[in-house]
Records
---
Amino acid sequence: MHAKQTGYHLSADDQKRLDDLFETILREQQRFVGYPCNALFDYHSLFKFLDHPINNVGDPYVASNFHLNTHAIEREVLGIFHELTHAVPEESWGYISSGGTEGNMYGIFLGRELFPDGMVYYSEDTHYSVNKILRCLHVRNIMIKSCPDGRIDLEDLRETIRIHRDLPPIIFANVGTTMRGAIDDLEGIRAILDDLAIHRAYIHVDAALGGMILPFVDDPQPWDFRAGIDSIAISGHKMVGSPLPCGIVLAKKVHVDRIARSIEYVGTLDTTILGSRNAITPLFMWYAFRTVGIEGFRRWIRQCFETADYAVARLNEIGRNAWRHRNSVTVVFDRPSPEMAHRWQLAAEHDIVHLITMPHVTTEQIDRLVDELVRRSPVTTTPKANA
Ligand SMILES: *Cc1c(COP(=O)(O)O)cnc(C)c1O
């Protein structure tokens, strides 16, 4: 039933195109194990909001002239994430972004506004979007070596910062790298700054996936505001789950106050990167936290680790050198044939691929994948020609 009739209808051909596309998506979802996007969500009871031109333009904490918004719900979601990241409530700010990339851009933007002559340091395992962000923001930057397990190489970081001691460091740290799920050693990074007597520094954390895992484990690596960070980006469409990409970005309020501009046209503060912002995604995330809840996410994460351990064991039974980091759901293993990587949407880099045991991934799927690997992509014992 439609609430309003526009008088327009799709032709039968066009309707068929949509139906076919939908079938393809259903079929492909059966082997959706390579990307960190949770498929377990049901937001049907929110669909009525899609009938209205809602928009969260501007600062979620400032009333605006655009009243069809979900700012109140957005602030509640931000409150949850302030708690999960141990931010000091009165000193923190944030908004719901379009995803990890926007959140990371925001963090580096704040860092650069604080230190216009700053130097950004980031590891070679950092998400591909950061290179583009650095070019957009036109900020000096140096890529640091990674350890073989994907964490930033602290020796290389120390040496590089030491050489550029006159420039305030803007550290871009990973909490769950895209390929290996590695968590950069934030205590080690802070120790380097202390050792070198550097007092002017900014630390942004990219916790796209890890930021929705570490709040729910018993033994988290240092990763949040307690570890002395200045801002953090977390994805919403990854572990929370959402058909519309989204993310959470949080920052210390003092940094945001430096960039805030009052705008008469919308009657609010222009503190966000985008102007018009999604008013649906805050509803999705709010709904997830009101239904699944903190305890539900804790159970999900535990179950994800169990599936990950199962995948590691099964893949090693068939000789694929599988492993994962502590508190990570990213299972790294030897790159199979291109056909198998494509069929199971396994993201590849050099000689490795990963699968990611999000809440919707089952041990039955892992079994099917393992069976197919044995049949279609056997381990070759002869050395690869010109590898
Ligand atoms: C997914 C991811 C991003 C980018 O997130 P988008 O929502 O795709 O913009 C950034 N960093 C890491 C580590 C990621 O895994």
Note: The chain has two domains: 14-33+296-376, 48-291.
---
Amino acid sequence: MRYVSTRGEAPDLGFADVLLAGLAPDGGLYVPAEWPELPVGSISGLPYPAAAARLMAPFVGDDLDDATLARLCDESYATFRHPAVTPLVQVDHHHWLLELFHGPTLAFKDVALQLVGRLFDHVLGERDRHVTIVGATSGDTGSAAIDGVAGCEHLDIVILYPAGRTSEVQRRQMTTVDSPNVHTVAVDGTFDDCQDLVKAMFADAGFRERLNLSAVNSINWARVMAQVVYYVTASTALAGPVTFCVPTGNFGNVLAGWIARRCGAPIADFVVASNRNDILTRFVAGGDMSTRDVVPTLSPSMDIQVSSNFERLLFEMNGRDGGMTAEQLRRFRSTGRLDVEADQRREWIEGSFRAARVDDDETLEEIARVHAETGMLIDPHTATGVGAARRLGGAHPIVTTATAHPAKFPDAVERATGVRPALPDHLADLFERPERTVSLPNDLAAVQTFVASVSRTPHTP
Ligand SMILES: *Cc1c(COP(=O)(O)O)cnc(C)c1O
């Protein structure tokens, strides 16, 4: 299996190199050179980890042997607290939730990052290499990335977060991990300041090379690949075709669903749910892909305006022409508006994607409604999906991806229902655990000095 860049100017690579590279050197994202046919019919009756290994094998190719891939899947999904790993739960006669939040940090990002951490450690070990992962987080991604790599021998991770601007649960999920390769930094600044510091560290070529800087952000192909699995297991369990409704930020999760369908899963179409940050809804519903300012909502992990993974769909829409995709994105960056031809929309969007925007009031109403009707508590991200699914659900059974555990966003859930969701047992003592973090000014030199001081990547000071 070979991978090509969506911007057409990078050499093609195998799976392990794509995993370690993240972003392609031409600024594009890696996609398989050809979409494989997945063994969709062969997974019935298999436990989730075994199904995952079988479904991902065509994407991994010869870079990992089957036994290693199966072992890494077993280890990754043993960290989940439900025997089905991603259970389907029925909400009404034709609406299901696909619960993706039973992993260690209570958000769907665990499904991918538990595996990606282990893949990194395995490949780096084989190559006798060591990397330093740096990242910025506003909450969910940082804790999932930390949990996915904690204890790994061949990598260190340093996560920057804006001091005082994450929820206490989110901060403690990062700062209470006691592992010699995990480091967190409270930056005196905003999330954007943290992201700028990370970008500046990558832009400093000397620093980047000295410490073998790496990233595990949402554009990494291996994260998308790991998410393809639950679209296949859920749609085949329900003997599809089904509609999936996906609460969306970076478009990574819904793109994984599109790939599952492209590679043979019985999926009819997708409903994209957004909150007030609705660039994707405006695009799908009316062809308007133009950026606006990000507004804070009750579903902060969807407070995004530029959905980085959309580039992979755009590449398909352009007939896999990397030059055309790169040019389109250049124009988007300079004008804030992405222009897509009417016939491209008809071919690629209509019939495949529908979209709805669900604001905070409606999010609270959906949390209350689901609680009143079923007794279940759902988180605000999931609630945007449930609202969109109720509005746009059609002929097929509809499955909404439940992307976070309600206890991760207890304030909104309590406001809607009067019930404060309890943390699961493994986190019940989160507020008693000691925190390990350092506070630094919003200053590149100070952050670089810290990263170099904790990195175990062999380097000269
Ligand atoms: C990251 C996240 C999302 C958005 O997922 P994308 O893949 O970025 O579209 C939705 N809900 C929760 C809880 C998340 O953490």
Note: The mean pLDDT is 94.
---
Amino acid sequence: MNGTERYLEEQYASLGISKEVYRFGEKIEHELKERFEEMNKRAEYNQMKVIKAMQENRVSAECFQTSSGYGYNDLGRDTLEKVYASCFKGEDALVRPQITCGTHALALALMSNLRPGDELLSPVGKPYDTLEEVIGIRPSKGSLAEYGISYRQADLLADGSFDYDAIRAAINEKTRLVTIQRSKGYAVRPTLSVKKIGELISFIKDIKPDVVCMVDNCYGEFVEEKEPLETGADLIVGSLIKNPGGGLAPIGGYLVGKKEYIENAAYRLTSPGLGKEVGASLGVIQSFYQGLFLAPTVVCGALKGAVFAANIYERLGFDVLPDGTESRHDIIQAVTFRNPDAMTAFCEGIQAAAPVDSYVTPEPWAMPGYDSDVIMAAGAFVQGSSIELSADGPMKPPYSVYFQGGLTWYHAKLGILMSLQKLKERNLVNTNLL
Ligand SMILES: *Cc1c(COP(=O)(O)O)cnc(C)c1O
């Protein structure tokens, strides 16, 4: 061990990571060297993509000026939308602090591009929880169902593949928009690669060419070289407090895609007749630029954390999804503990490693919309930001925790080592395996 390595081990010890846990982590990290190299290359590719988009659209210091009131002629806002369109390969974009979260961005895309009598189809099973109320699967005020927009769903097959027969049967003369969720979210199904999404879209367009194919891109941005607009999607939608905000955007959502669908969304977000012309940027626009600039590196760090966690916990005998060797299409990692105490210890470790609120202890709590208590760990600079290191899960069998984010790889690493430290201190792992 050289001087630097010894200093490092001592620094981890001063944070509460034992030698045994630290060295186990080093061993796993060493084994992942090639995998991490590949991720670095992908981040480098995406970094160049972002810089190119900024250069092509002549981003200048003037773009960082703020606007208030109506926000007419906001150069920074309008240029940023061009940057997003270039970066994600769309005709146009809507990137706004007035879009409050991912659910809002998705609701906006759906409500502005569907009309009474139209039908929405999800060919990849049940969508993300919060969309159930948007669609009206669970009755809710203002849902699509209330406006006479119907919904159909084709579930994935048991092995996670598309049920092409069911999808063909579900498409009819009313089908106007197809929503495809890239990330598994909190479901147990594989995350879809951009290539797979492309295959699905070409199948659907062969049956009905004029259907709008929308992708819920949450947690997927910059994980691969390509994004779904490059494999046939018409519209992609996501949150700025996830991947593309790079941890710096304090709020916001985006839509990128065909001009017509972006226009529809703009007239819905503000007002018919006003569209993209209004919407002050209120001083946050620089963080949107800078966050996008950092996003490829941040996503890379989060991905390394996910792969590191998968390999650590797989080695210790827990079920992990995706497994330690699978290719990645989003930043979410699930670990199944089959033991409430282990799940709690894991979350306590993530919390204890945070730069903010490290001294608080997460406790399972009742949450609206859940039928069991939920435990959450997060010590974030931006409230609820899940590109920052965070973990949560429902306190019920099989006691699976969903873990994501990390603004830097080093922080993600500390979080995972701290989670293991907590499990070890409570005799919840087989230490012979360390
Ligand atoms: C996070 C997420 C959403 C909703 O975003 P919020 O910002 O939490 O409203 C929708 N779909 C997927 C796949 C997500 O991961």
Note: The pocket of pyridoxal-5'-phosphate is lined by residues 101-103, 106, 128, 130, 181, 183, 185, 216, 218-219, 239 (CB under 6 Å).
---
Amino acid sequence: MIKMLNKMAKLAVPAAALSVVPAVASAAENLAQDDFVGISFWLISMALIAATAFFFLETQRVSAKWKTSLVVSGLVTMVAAVHYFYMRDVWVATGDTPTVYRYIDWLITVPLLMVEFYLILRAITKVSGGIFWRLMIGTLVMLVGGYAGEAGYIGVTLGFIIGMAGWAYILYEIFAGEAGKLNANEAPESVKSAFSTMRWIVTIGWAIYPLGYVFGYMTESASMESLNVIYNLADVLNKIAFGVIIWSVAVAESEKAK
Ligand SMILES: *C/C=C(C)/C=C/C=C(C)/C=C/C1=C(C)CCCC1(C)C
């Protein structure tokens, strides 16, 4: 897996160039100037493309063991960019919430973020592969619960409870489970800070998503505008900003090694 990802790093430059080519360029409907949700979809689509090109190109600058992390960050923003093109079109043309594209995106990008977390843990100390799979199971429970609730297969409250249970399990794993118990003393400062950033992201950054769900379905004033704007903001933080943090650690560690 890791070897494969490293090979992909070599393909990074052509891939980055390709990713700049729009996957969908239809303009079924004009973006209305007061459609702020639509505008947020547009802004974030473009930011995700720029971030993808940046992460892939920067693999050239960091030392070998950090290349994989940057490739994974670039894959997260690339997969999300393509989904944002589609979500944006659905929203602008119909005003509907693009739930199915949203969850297909999460089904790919959240496991990729788990790969990223696993790589950070490995940079600190020896970890078993088991932890990776446990994080993955928590992710699946979280997303299946959320999707079933949003798509109407089960009640929104039940979907919320199942989703929260999956997320709680992930938090347990990284705070109290094997990952939480890891002795991080020998790791360099910057890697330790990446580890604590990872915990903050999964706790605070990810907490924005259930908030979106609550304001989209569970309050008096619940609306699809709130749902989409909150999910979109959460993606900027958890996909782009998180990638930038990993990038800054990668650059700092690579410069030191020179
Ligand atoms: C790039 C996309 C990311 C990091 C998506 C993360 C999504 C979540 C953390 C979703 C969590 C949910 C709950 C904790 C309960 C309600 C249902 C969800 C799926 C919105």
Note: The chain has a mean pLDDT of 89.
